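User: Here's a protein and a ligand (zinc ion). What would the complex look like?
Assistant: Let me lay out the input and then the predicted complex.
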Amino acid sequence: MKVYFLGTGTSQGIPVIGSDHFVCLSEDLKDKRLRVSVWIYDEDFSIVIDCGPDFRQQMLVSKCRYIDGLLFTHEHADHTAGLDDIRPFYFKQGDIPVYAHQRVLDNLSKRFDYIFEKENKYPGAPSVVPFEVRNNQNFQIKKQEIIPINALHGNLQVFGYRIKDFVYLTDVKTIATSELEKLKNIDVLVVNALRFEPHHTHFNIEEAINFINLVQPKKTYLTHISHILGLHEEVQKQLPENVFLAYDNLEIEIK
Ligand SMILES: [Zn+2]
């Protein structure tokens, strides 16, 4: 199974529009971060988590050809605003299966009513098949079991997902101890770490590292990164062993 980091930036992406911050001006490709998303695939399935405003660009670069399931973590725009660009997949595959908390499905069906509409549809508008994700209810995409993991982004519920021994968690600030059972024996954890300073709805570096120490995955990649965190190369040197900053277009293999 492979995991391709489609985007690793926080809500504005890096560079931030109009910014003269040294990270935004960096020429290192690892300092250029689209909005956060991953593509997880092997011979049998192809899953994309979140569909932010950079989705089109991400699909062009990654060469993802098919989506068996589009999973959402939550409804914030940096995770959902690209939904219209599923059109090429819809033309090729038909209705695209989307998986999210019922609250998120309701939100998307308001914001993208023409995509969720079943009658009098505008010809050429994409269509989806919505599937509700419930906590403590595992589900399958093409025989691959997916385990939802419940967490909080400030006051907002978010889902992370476990697929085999890989876990993807973003926009997390707190997580109940009862959820840690689902995070046992992980090979690779992806978790959000916004910056060094604390933030009211995101883990900072220290909170992410405390969480990693609790979960003890073999390897961790940090994502949902703000330009305020600093240059990729410099921050990487300050991280503990087996903790890495993810970067756009990084691809890793999970056994
Ligand atoms: Zn976000």
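Summary: Residues 11, 76, 78-79, 171, 224 surround zinc ion (CB under 6 Å).
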